[in-house]
Amino acid sequence: MRPGLLLATAAAIVVAAAGEAGAQGASSADARLRQALDAPTYQAVSLVFDSARARGIPVRPLVNRALQATLHRTPGPRVHEAVVKLAGRLDVAKGALGPGSSEAELSAGANALAIGVPRATLVEIRALSPRQPVTVPLGVLTELVAREVTINRASQMVVALLRNGVTPAQLLSLSDDVSHDVNAGIEPGAAVDIRTRGALGTLQQGLGDNGLDTDARLKAPASAPGAGAATKVPRKP
Amino acid sequence: MIDDGNTRDEFAPEDDMSTDEMPDVREDETLRDVVAALGTLPAVSEADVQRIVGLAAAEAAQSGRRGAHRWSAQPAGEVVPLRAPKPRWFTSIPLAAAATLVFAAGIGGFVIRDLTDDAPAGARVAPDVAVQAGPAELTPVAADARDEAPIATQFVLEAPEAARVSLVGAFNGWDAGATPLVRDPATGLWSVTLPLAPGRHVYAFLVNDSVLTLDPRAPETQDPELGTSGSVILVGTP
Q: What are the chain B neighbours of A114 within 8 Å (beta carbons)?
């Protein structure tokens, strides 16, 4: 067999196998849903899936949401309601983050919206990272709010750091530090302020004076423990 | 320096035409007419050059000739011809087949990622760069794939009495059978390592196929819509 023909055949096999694996995965999830949900709920969520698909919304997060609910033995009407709400949030996230956003980005945006982050913040984050994934910044933002940092303060922190060129790894490290501070008993807002100042100082050292938006620096309240001092915060022993 | 009569001006071109051999415009009737005609032409402005270039480009586009010259007016008004490169992508069958294979692998990966519940969420297609039609313009259309590449993440649970433990989350479609943990006989710890896309993930352990258990090492998050709680992990490049 000629090499070209051999390679072309291999390509065809790869395509066929990929399609088969994808179809099996989708049908497996569908079979699990059909088995776990009562018939009316299954039909109702299937309609939501179809509607989302027609609007260009990724269906997998919706299917996962329904599967999560069934694993927790959530009643049917509540499953349907959760799926509908997630579809709405994915719609808003797509509008805010742009139609080219990945499924992970849209899911992260939907999760941020669920916890109360406004759509405008998603738009701002996307504007600051037009060509970089925003999955990590949105995840960090969501987690900060979940750790009882106010939405405004958490949003300010993420936006200010993105504006100053923070990397996803730095953001994750910062979120980890804030979590430790909060666990150690520090007020969440104060922990965010002091960690943000420390991170901005690090970024400033790394970048010099070029490209830094000093107006984006957050001002810590006068009552914040350790405000204006070292960035290390005492932790639980 | 002594001139021996054989010394040649080293800066003179070897095939330089002597002034005696050059035709004199004043004596050559044809050349004289040409020069006279050129002298009657109006001065050409930059706008004229741009207009002519535009007309030429439109004509070339209409003719649709493959490999036709394209013209680009430089900022200073200088006109530089750009020769379009000849297409060399599929000049041989093996090369075409190899390209098809690569393309098929990309499509296959996309299909699997999009349709399979077991695929890690957020896995991104390889970085892509689109070459636009304009001269020397490159437009990046996708982010660096390293930022979204799955990262090996370990989960550990101490459950010495458990017979079976599995990990569930959106990354595996909340499938109890998808990600079982393995017990280390020496320590009694259950663990599993799997690739996760960067970002925030909610998960739980399912002990003995029936009891959903939170990770005592991880933060907890509430889900008011479902009335449940879960553990949270933020995944990213260390």
A: 225
How many CB atoms are located within 10 Å of the residue A79 CB? 27
Contact (CB, 8 A) for B178 and B192: no
> B199 with B234: CB under 8 angstroms?
yes
Collapse the DSSP code of B58 into the 3-class scheme (helix H, G, I; strand E, B; otherwise coil) and give the result.
helix
pTM: 0.61
Residue B99 CA to its chain's centroid (Å): 16
Chosen from B111, B200, B235 to mutate, greatest number of chain A CBs within 10 A: B200
Could you report the per-residue pLDDT of B6-22, keeping only the tens digit for each? 444 444 444 444 444 55
A64 vs B100: CB contact, 8 Å cut-off? no
Q: What is the torsional sign of CA A50, A51, A52, A56? A: positive
- Residue B55's identity, in one-letter code, is L
CB B193 within 8 A of CB B154: yes
Cα distance between residue A86 and residue A70, in whole Å: 16
Which of A133-147, B88-102, B135-149 shows the highest mean pLDDT? A133-147
State how far the Cα of A23 lies from the Cα of B138, in Å rounded to an integer: 36
- Residue of chain B whose alpha carbon sits nearest to that of A4: B94
Helices A76-97 and A103-114 cross at an angle (nearest 10°) of: 110
Instruction: Evaluate whether ipTM surpasses 0.85.
Output: no
Partner A, chain B 116-135, Cβ-Cβ below 8 Å: 116-119, 121-122, 124
**Beta carbons within 10 angstroms of residue A95's beta carbon:** 13
Tokens of B212: 């959903």
Q: What is the 3-state secondary structure (H, E, C) of A163-194?
A: HCCCCHHHHHHHHHHHHHHHHCCCCHHHHHHH
